[in-house]
Amino acid sequence: MSEKSAATPLLLHACCGPCSLEPVKYLRREGFEPTICWTNPNIQPLAEHDRRLAVLRDWASRVAHVDLIVADDQRELWERTVAPAGLDRARRCRLCYALRLAESCRVARERGFSHISTTLAVSPYQLFDDCCDVLASLAARNGLTPVWRDFRPYYAESVSDSRELGMYRQNYCGCRFSAAEAALERHEARDWRKAAKAARRAGKEPPPRSGYLPG
C-alpha cells in the first residue's frame, strides 16, 4: 500500500495558491491526504478570482500533485448575505467564512470525506478565532471532523516558498471592501514611514506604529 493511499482523506478549503503550500505540506506530514476545494465567491473582480484559481490549479497539478474540486461559485448569495455588512469587518468576515465553509462542508459530505480543514488558518490577517468557531460549528452540523491547525507560524515560509515558485501573490483578501481596507492600510504605513524618518532626522522618537493615522 502506498503512503498516499494509507493517508486519511481530508477536504481542504483553499483561499488561494500561496496560502495552500504549507497546509498541504504539514497536513501530509500528519498523515492526511488533502483534496483541495475551491469556493471563494468573495474574490472580486471576476478576473482576479479566475487568476487566483488558475495559479492554484497550476501549482496543485504541476507541483503538489493534489486533487482539486471547484465547487459552486455562490456569487449572488455572497452579495445578498455578506456584502450588506460592508466595512464592518468582523461581521463581514464571519459571514464570508460561513458561506465558503458551508459549501466546503457540503462538498465534503457529498464526496465522502470525514475530515475538513481550511487554508484560512495561514494568514495573520484573517480573524483566526472567528474562523475556527465557524469551521467547528459547520463541521459538527455536517457530521465532519474539523482539522483546525494554527498555520500562522508558517506564514513567512509560505511567502518565501510562493515567491520562489513565481506564484502570483495578491495584496488584499478578496472582496471589494477588503481591497479598500488594504489600500488604506498601505497608505497609512507609507505616512508612518515618512513621519518616522522625519522624526529621526529631527532627533526625536518616531511615532508609535500601532494605530498611527496621518494627521
From TrEMBL:
Pathway: tRNA modification; tRNA-queuosine biosynthesis. GO terms for molecular function: 4 iron, 4 sulfur cluster binding; epoxyqueuosine reductase activity; metal ion binding. [4Fe-4S] cluster binds at residues 15-16, 93, 96. It comes from the Bacteria. Its EC number is 1.17.99.6. Residues 195-215 are annotated as: Disordered. Disulfide bonds join 173-175. Keywords: 4Fe-4S, Disulfide bond, Iron, Iron-sulfur, Metal-binding, Oxidoreductase, Queuosine biosynthesis, Redox-active center, tRNA processing. One of its GO terms (biological process) is tRNA queuosine(34) biosynthetic process. It catalyses: epoxyqueuosine(34) in tRNA + AH2 = queuosine(34) in tRNA + A + H2O. It is an enzyme of class 1 (oxidoreductase). Belongs to the QueH family. HAMAP family: QueH. Catalyzes the conversion of epoxyqueuosine (oQ) to queuosine (Q), which is a hypermodified base found in the wobble positions of tRNA(Asp), tRNA(Asn), tRNA(His) and tRNA(Tyr). This is Epoxyqueuosine reductase QueH. It comes from Olsenella uli (strain ATCC 49627 / DSM 7084 / CCUG 31166 / CIP 109912 / JCM 12494 / LMG 11480 / NCIMB 702895 / VPI D76D-27C) (Lactobacillus uli).
